[in-house]
């Protein structure tokens, strides 16, 4: 299994593509396709057919589409900027992620 520097519920910034500069929260990670689903980023409109069995009305629905994991960077809460992520061990032996700009631990 691949290890990504981003985790679910991380605050990230899009660094390339049509949504460059947007900030959102990671909703889902699609590991098989190396993609992430970011809240309010890469939003498209889909035309849906009504489904009376599930009480779903038809119409135009806006939904987020996945973007490649290399196009996002983790936002550090302490320095409020997109940053590279490093790993280190705490005194009690727990592996944690940290901001390489300000050395603060990323939650």
TrEMBL record:
GO terms for molecular function: rRNA binding; structural constituent of ribosome. It holds the Pfam family ribosomal_L24. It comes from Desulfovibrio subterraneus. The lineage of its organism: Bacteria, Pseudomonadati, Thermodesulfobacteriota, Desulfovibrionia, Desulfovibrionales. This is Large ribosomal subunit protein uL24. NCBIfam families: rplX_bact. It comes from the Bacteria. GO terms for biological process: translation. One of two assembly initiator proteins, it binds directly to the 5'-end of the 23S rRNA, where it nucleates assembly of the 50S subunit. One of the proteins that surrounds the polypeptide exit tunnel on the outside of the subunit. InterPro entries: KOW, Rib_uL2_dom2, Ribosomal_uL24, Ribosomal_uL24_C, Ribosomal_uL24_CS, Ribosomal_uL24_KOW, Translation_prot_SH3-like_sf. Keywords: Ribonucleoprotein, Ribosomal protein, RNA-binding, rRNA-binding. Residues 5-32 form the KOW domain. Belongs to the universal ribosomal protein uL24 family. HAMAP family: Ribosomal_uL24_B. One of its GO terms (cellular component) is ribosome. Part of the 50S ribosomal subunit.
């Amino acid at each position: 299994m691949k290890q990504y520097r981003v985790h679910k519920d991380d605050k990230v910034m899009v660094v390339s593509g049509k949504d460059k500069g947007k900030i959102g929260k990671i909703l889902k990670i699609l590991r098989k396709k190396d993609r992430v689903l970011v809240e309010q980023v890469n939003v498209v409109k889909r035309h849906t057919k009504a489904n009376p069995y599930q009480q779903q009305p038809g119409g135009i629905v806006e939904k987020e589409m996945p973007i490649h994991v290399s196009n996002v960077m983790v936002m550090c809460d302490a320095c409020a900027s997109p940053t590279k992520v490093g790993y280190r061990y705490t005194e009690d032996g727990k592996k944690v992620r940290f901001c390489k700009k300000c050395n603060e631990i990323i939650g």
